[in-house]
Amino acid sequence: MYRSATSPPASAASKHHLADPALASRLLGATRTGLLENADLGPPVPRDGTLLGALFESLVTLCVRVYAQRAEARTGHLRTFSGNREVDLIVEAHDKRVVAIEVKLKRTIKDGDTHNLRWLQQTIGDELLDAIVITTGETAYRRPDGIGVVPAALLGP
């Protein structure tokens, strides 16, 4: 999806999200207790993390795609061919500049959670409009490294 003269090679593997994470949860038979306790809920999530984390990422992706569509921007994700770098969401404006978004099912963000966003900042420079981590926290703020931290509850047009 995203590619420029300075961008790293991206892999061809797609990331898939069911349009409605509530529907996915229902189809899997997930209960509130099961999700919160990370109980075995049928098929394993095809990536690291919990089912709740995957559903949270799908919910954030759905929201970001709706807002990006209104702004006539494209959305996708970035994963290098080697698989050692991944950014959950890339929102690309018509001028090819991007907003990079990581989604974390946690309230507190540490340096390790922003590693790939900082790498992308160094890699594409001014083509990066902003880098954001979307969390389950309550307060939006800007980290000393310039990366924004935004609670999912504050997403909106």
SSE map:
Layout: H1 21-27, H2 32-36, H3 51-70, E1 74-79, E2 86-92, E3 98-103, H4 115-124, E4 128-135, E5 141-142, E6 148-151
Parallel strand pairs: 3-4, 4-6
Antiparallel strand pairs: 1-2, 2-3, 5-6
Helix pairs in contact: 1-3
Computed structural class: alpha/beta
Strand content: 15-25%
- How are helices and strands ordered from N to C? HHHEEEHEEE
Q: Nearest-angstrom radius of gyration?
A: 16 Å
Number of helices: 4
Written account of the structure:
- A hairpin with a 5-residue loop joins strand 5 and strand 6 (148-151).
- The chain is 27% helix and 21% strand.
- It has a six-stranded mixed beta sheet with strand order 1-2-3-4-6-5, with helices on both faces.
- It is of the alpha/beta class.
- It is globular.
- The chain has a single domain (21-154), classed as 3-Layer(aba) Sandwich (Trna Endonuclease, Chain: A, domain 1), CATH 3.40.1350.
